[in-house]
Amino acid sequence: MSSEAETIAKTARRASNIIKTLSNEQRSTALKSIYDTLRDHKTQILEANEKDLAEARAANFPSSLIKRLDLTVGDKYDSMLQGVLDVAALDDPVGKITLATKLDEGLDLYRVTVPVGVLLVIFEARPEVIANISALALKSGNAAILKGGKESTHTFKAMAACVTKALEATGTVPAHTIQLITTREEVGSLLSQDMYIDLVIPRGSNALVRHIKENTKIPVLGHADGICSIYVAKDADAQMAARIVVDAKTNYPAGCNAVETLLLDESILSTKTFPTIIEALLKAGVTLKVTPEIELWLTKNDITIPESVKVVPATEQDFYTEFLDHIIAIKAVPSLADAIEHINEHGSHHTDCIITKDEAEANTFLKGVDSAGVYWNASTRFADGFRYGFGTEVGISTNKIHARGPVGLEGLVGYHYQLKGHGQIAADYAGAGGNKQFLHTPIDH
Amino acid sequence: MSSEAETIAKTARRASNIIKTLSNEQRSTALKSIYDTLRDHKTQILEANEKDLAEARAANFPSSLIKRLDLTVGDKYDSMLQGVLDVAALDDPVGKITLATKLDEGLDLYRVTVPVGVLLVIFEARPEVIANISALALKSGNAAILKGGKESTHTFKAMAACVTKALEATGTVPAHTIQLITTREEVGSLLSQDMYIDLVIPRGSNALVRHIKENTKIPVLGHADGICSIYVAKDADAQMAARIVVDAKTNYPAGCNAVETLLLDESILSTKTFPTIIEALLKAGVTLKVTPEIELWLTKNDITIPESVKVVPATEQDFYTEFLDHIIAIKAVPSLADAIEHINEHGSHHTDCIITKDEAEANTFLKGVDSAGVYWNASTRFADGFRYGFGTEVGISTNKIHARGPVGLEGLVGYHYQLKGHGQIAADYAGAGGNKQFLHTPIDH
Questions:
Q1: What residue spans define the domains of chain B?
Q2: Going by DSSP bridges, is the β-strand pair A441-442/A97-104 parallel, antiparallel, or unpaired?
Q3: Count of A–B CB contacts within 8 Å?
Q4: Helix axis angle, A76-89 relative to A128-139, nearest 10°?
Q5: Which of B22, B108, B209, B400 to mutate to test the interface with A (most CBs of A within 10 A)?
Q6: I need a surface site. Which of A350, A363, A389, B417 has the fewest CB within 10 A?
Q7: If DSSP codes are grouped into helix, strand and coil, which group holds residue B385?
Q8: Chain-centre distance of CA A3, in angstroms?
Q9: Residue B425 and residue A21: Cβ atoms within 8 Å?
Q10: Does the beta carbon of A83 lie under 8 angstroms from any beta carbon of chain B?
Q11: A260 vs A205, A233, B44, B404, CA distance in Å?
């Protein structure tokens, strides 16, 4: 007997086997259909959303969660709609030939991008993810199972009805290509469907991502912590360092690409670079968690701590912490090598930066730091799919294989090899019993 | 307290952080050093190998295992040595720029290939894997932990001493870059070091691969079963079909790219294509496991079964089985769509083939079958890194993400993003508080 989760996963696999054969035009038409349906049912969806909001307020949910739930904040609804059209307009990620080799006359090998297959997307609160991930999955030829948090159930059901209706209207894309799961079925049982589900994409808190990574054998695309560091090297420009550090810390402290750790080369503690950076952080209202030698140099430099901010001793744990707030941990390191070692040991392999005028030092840092993004003289806040020019962002991955860093649609495709022959058999070729040699010449494509 | 496995894994991580910063020349020099040392210590290694062989014979190990253990079979030792030089001569897989975008004036983004990090390679019997995988890991800038089976302990220790000595001789590559583990430490405790190990590569039986996949959260590069199918469509050329099927089945039945399932379009059962294929298989000494309708047509065609071969009824399980022998399961399917569905349900997503003269049918098959290799009119036996022109083969992957199909050195690298700026901060740009627009123009590279 199949469990409910297995039935859902098998249904997704069957839909995947159909949608992956459709053309870019057919897939993009489904996105336009979703756009139309969500636009035409705005009233009903916002009514459902108001029910979720009322229940959330009654349950005294934190205001940050209520804000994430609320589809009427600013232009959230319209930008959600526009996002669907934007994804439809992107280049087709499927069917790209990335290698073409003539193995022999009339025996041509092509490596071609194909959809990954079945995605499981698990998210919290934000109902606009439904539109966004449906668009991304369909555009890249994947089937997707969407599982939302229970706090957005009413909105989720209203939007799910629209997506299903929109797909039915296409006549080509199976309605089950996007399955929106609102049953009580536990996420855990979906996470065990590694026979049918190819990739899990968590969209939510670090705790959610960590929970998922701990509980599945399916590859997970995403990141838990974003512990980014900036190392200010010996000959950094003081003003540049101060500007970058303040931007990376304060531009959006809740972002995973915000800086959490500041490593200062020991040699700059006795120069004016040190007070320049520290005073800029204090002026920006950032709490400093400092090691004893930093505290000593604060005193030596006679730096005044404004009333509104705090300077406190750092613990070892602070250098493993994503503060997501106006807080930064600061320590001194004896050398570039120590900075690299610190980052590789304590960081989360997300995005790390060196500030220096010395190109050789920068290159050593870029080669030595084991992170998805390695920056020279630029704010870590640039780590973002839109800023990188990808047009969309599936997430930011700290995995070592497949997609890494900000991930666009290319993270939702893999590849396969197509071999087109005229009856060739292996036994005719050298190494398998015959005398024929392979040509291995590139094919123009 | 660190466990022994954790110490090994951490040591590998530290070595990884060094070797990934070395040049192609430095890495390739280490390969030449390994070549020299293994060549100079051939006598000692073969003496150690003889001890393993004596113990294996005394323990009555099967002759196939003894053959795999034996480094003196044919030119095994010399071709192992040549393999190390061949890998050294390949293009550097590290440091390739795969995307370059000017985000703004003086703010350049590069996507650059980098080593994956730390590999855990688990293998059985074949001691030549030590030279092969050491070469592949070093060439691609990775550290590796090698764990062999206990039946090759003497050979393993002798070769491990050579590899360590060879690396020490380089003066640049840390000796611990390749750790050869001969302790009693269980594989299980290494498989749990997902903090430090980035990729597991099993080199051995299906049972080994399955065990590893079941017992680790680290991504596994490889495949368990190779259940490949050939579908003979309505208008297949009879002679071509017979030649391809016989080659795919008999050229090397123990290979993962050998065909196991033959799907015949119902429409060919009443044509002479059917007896042509069947008689070719019988002549090649292949046992046929057939469904009732195939059996019926065997009778109708009055096909004589030679004494030396068997025709037996197929069970449903036969279509999920990798026979690794002169056995093939045969069934009829009503249509191309049914063939695709059968393969997606029963196959192992390795390599599958359609034989047809109809290009439209072929393209439907190539798009619809969910496998690493999809072939049109060519033997499945071509699924191989050397035949594809990669110069080496790390393994054949049936994963959906990262490397798929025959994997060359590119399966041992990932990428990171390098951003090179001049003090740019996010707050100056639109979307993060400022007015500057991104350029997103390609950089020549």
A1: 4-214, 228-382
A2: antiparallel
A3: 241
A4: 0
A5: B400
A6: A363
A7: coil
A8: 31
A9: no
A10: no
A11: 17, 17, 54, 37
Contact B382 A103 (CB under 8 A): yes
C-beta atoms of B198 and A424 within 8 A: no
Over its length of 445 residues, how does chain A's per-residue pLDDT go in tens digits? 568 899 999 999 999 999 999 999 999 999 999 999 999 999 999 999 999 999 999 999 998 889 989 999 999 999 999 999 999 999 999 999 999 999 999 999 999 999 999 999 998 878 998 999 999 999 999 999 999 888 899 999 999 999 999 999 999 999 999 998 876 667 889 999 999 999 999 988 888 898 899 899 999 998 888 999 999 999 999 999 999 999 999 999 989 999 999 999 999 999 999 999 999 999 999 999 999 999 999 999 988 898 889 999 999 999 999 999 999 999 999 999 999 999 999 999 999 999 999 999 999 999 999 999 999 999 999 999 999 999 888 899 999 999 999 999 999 999 999 999 999 999 999 989 999 999 999 999 8
Decide: A118 and A198 in contact? Cβ < 8 Å.
yes
A377: contact with B, CB 8 A cutoff = yes
Mutate to test the interface with B, among A16, A23, A375, A387 (most CBs of B within 10 A): A387
Token code pair at residue A46: 């916002």
A422 vs B377, B401, B421: nearest CB: B377
Superfamily for domain range B4-214: Aldehyde Dehydrogenase; Chain A, domain 1 (3.40.605.10)
SS3 category, B2: coil
- The vertex-B253 CA angle with B247 and B257, nearest 5°, equals 75
pLDDT per residue over B245-280, tens digit each?
999 999 999 899 999 999 999 999 999 999 999 999
Polymer length in residues for chain B: 445
Q: Phi, psi at residue A297, to the nearest 5°?
A: -75, -25
From the list A17, A370, A374, the residue facing B368 with the nearest CB is A17
Which CATH number is correct for A228-382, 3.40.630.30, 3.40.309.10, 3.30.1490.20, 3.30.420.40?
A: 3.40.309.10
Smallest Cα–Cα separation from A139: which of A168, A116, A155, A112?
A: A116
CATH architecture of A4-93+112-214: 3-Layer(aba) Sandwich (3.40)
Smallest Cα distance from A421 to chain B, Å:
5
Instruction: Write the ipTM.
Output: 0.94
Question: Residue A363 gets which letter from DSSP?
Answer: H
**Which has the closest alpha carbon to B114: B133, B130, B98, B131?**
B98
Q: Does A98 touch chain B (CB under 8 A)?
A: no
Pairwise CB contact (< 8 Å): A416 & B381:
no
| Contact between A414 and B426 using a beta-carbon 8 Å cutoff | no
Chain B contacts of A243, Cβ < 8 Å?
A: 423, 425
CB contact under 8 A, B426 and A237: no
